[in-house]
Amino acid sequence: MKISPVTTLILILVYFSLPGCQSHQEKVKQVVAIHPQSKDVTISQAFHAQIQAERHIPIRAPIKGVLKSVAVQKGQAVNAGEMLFEIEPVLDPAKSIANSVPVNAPFAGVIGRLETQPGSPVRPQDILTTLTDSSVMRVYFNVPEAHYLESMASLKPKDENLKIGLQLADGTTFDQPGTLEAIAGVFNPETGSIAFRADFPNPEGQLHHGQTGDVLLYQTLHDAIVIPEQAAFELRGKRYVYVVDASHMVQYREVVVQNEVDDFLVVESGVGVDDTVILTEAGNLRAGEKVEWVIQSQDSLSSKLK
């Protein structure tokens, strides 16, 4: 039986309308997306530090003579003006006998090692001991130039957005908070870093002159743009994300990352709270592709960044 051209055309249209014959057609991908959040975020940084007492000086003999008496012991706390040593001067035989000379504490502090004993001869400027005022400890640390310019150039002494802690060499955390007191005015050309100083109260005397540790800086970034780390991918040293435009089309966009907090990125530029950023299928997408998406709840994001 001869089939007419019209019948042939109808059969072809029916064939291609069947579900099984549409498998070759491209399907629209389903993706999970998020809207970046604007939040106050606290970032932490650690720098190796040297710990020094606010005042740490040698106590020297003022005259030539013989050490007559020692009134203190190593580790003893003394008050300002308290006598520490007594020296019997050695005089020219032609001169009259002088009274012994006391050596007093110039400020309140703790006595260090005793360098000489009663009866020993001393000369002017001989060190008898050291005196340390450790009521306030100064913690010095250096920040590399690139890191300083990237995230710390805006810091000022006594910055209210900056919290400072101190981790000791054994891993324990000192129980008193510190304050940023000074930032050097120049970079060290040999180390490529700039010096900072933080002060810590030391009411119980737990910190000692000469210790080391790590100073911990906790800086609050207000209204920071935050996205999950898994939303970004790296290409040739730069970070990118996929976003969906109003036409449901995929576009990729470069983002500048300011900091990383746990599994999240603090974004300096590239996306905002009104953007739709794709969270899944990033490795299987291409620019210009059409997608459908669902927005993922960000309760977990909010709780981790509080």
TrEMBL record:
Residue ranges annotated for the Multidrug resistance protein MdtA-like barrel-sandwich hybrid domain, each copy included: 57-123
UniProt cross-references to Gene3D superfamilies, sorted A to Z: 2.40.30.170, 2.40.420.20, 2.40.50.100
Top-rank taxon, per record: Bacteria
GO MF terms held by the record: transmembrane transporter activity
Location(s) in or outside the cell: Cell envelope
GO biological process: response to antibiotic
Domain Multidrug resistance protein MdtA-like C-terminal permuted SH3 per the UniProt entry, residue ranges: 223-282
Multidrug resistance protein MdtA-like beta-barrel domain: residues covered: 137-217
Entry-linked InterPro entries: MdtA-like_b-barrel, MdtA-like_BSH, MdtA-like_C, RND_pump_MFP
GO CC, any one term: plasma membrane
Family membership: Belongs to the membrane fusion protein (MFP) (TC 8.A.1) family.
Name under which the protein is recorded: RND family efflux transporter, MFP subunit
